[in-house]
Amino acid sequence: MASFRTSSTGGGGGSSNNDALVVPLLLSTAATLGATIIVQLVTPADPWGKSCRFLRQLGRQEKGNLTSASNVESSVGEYERLHANTTSVDERNSNYTNLVNSYYDLATLFYEWGWGTSFHFSNRHPHESFDEATRRHEFYLASKLDLTGALGKVGDAMKRHMNGSYVESQEVKEGSTPAMARVKVLDVGCGIGGPMRNICKFTGADITGLTLNQYQVHRGNELCCADAHFTNLKDNGLPQIRCRSVQGDFMKQPFQPSSFDAAYAIEATCHAPDRVDCYSEIYRVLKPGAIFACYEWCLTDKYDTTNPEHVSIKKQIEEGDGLPDIVSTHHCLTALKKAGFEILEERDLVNDEYGGWQAPATGGYSTTKEARKHHRGGKPWMLPLMPSWNPFTQRFQFNWFGLGLTKYSLKVMEFLRLAPAGTSRTQILLQSGGMGLARGGELGIFTPMYLMVGRVPLD
Fold first, then answer.
1. Rounded Cα gap, residues 70 and 319, in angstroms
2. Per DSSP, what are the bridge partners of residue 347?
3. CA 43 to CA 74: how far, in whole Å?
């Protein structure tokens, strides 16, 4: 305020400059508040309800619910230390449990608040909503698991056990049936279980989600128990809940060998310090003939280690997303083979046709005149992270005003004790990572959806 008073007494030029700055700021703030009110009143988005829940959960975090530290400020401090320029990749890999726990202690609430319960990206087809694209992306991966084949094996085991004698409720069929609930699927790195619950509803299979972070386990199970759809009948010998989260390290999984009929991972194993060891653990817990399908975060062939911008973007993504190191698509595919899987399919889904701004020859993101002619309303995966002045979208936070508004709003909340100290630093990290992802997607040097499908040999 002092600077405004000094300018107004020092001459008309300073006052007019301040007015030129204040007016757009006030208009932008008013537009943001107005947009929030409209969204609250006329859509099911409920931003006020989500914000209140977000603040309550932040308070719970500060009361002993963090995995990595005693409070948010200590957690963000440890995370920043692990990603400092003086910390080597080898040290981050050796401390990956602290790195991942520190990151998800900080990020989980922001993800759920701003993104939803499914922590992943997807391209959007024309006329497809964000939530529809999210579910389609999950269901497509689930379709690669051959759960029908797994059900057949379960049915054979049931027939041997029952000597071919069935009542109708024990009939082997797909859907939300007792037989399908005997098909055991593993979600490797489940977060708070959004994909797990969607795929459970879609397939009817029993799904166990594995995550390193204890807060995510609590939140995931809270959401599973809140939905009656996941409750099994009491008299069929099945677990009470058809899907659940358990705490564990996917590098040292707490399961017996050959425990699962299928497994999948969605943008999760990128946190592993060693891909061969990670995939080998997944191989160990799968039955012979079982399928593992995953979406991996990878560098593409366009990444150039001698290009300073590329190197900077890679570091920005690693810092903003809790990664020890990002590896190439070739590295991941080779690791899956070394772990023992038979490769059934692999490709980068970023380049699949989705009706967006894509180069006709390659499918890659492009803004050329030819690509614009190709556009039919589809949206690339990184669009939510690209800046916009539309206050009705979350992209508003990535323009210069939105970045400042978010930062200082959270600082005010920290000062008023409505949010724990360190909350604003957390958001800055996440926004920086988001901008790195957006730029990496624009340049085509990074993909969050490199698809790999592998099978455990039968012999």
1. 22
2. 451
3. 38
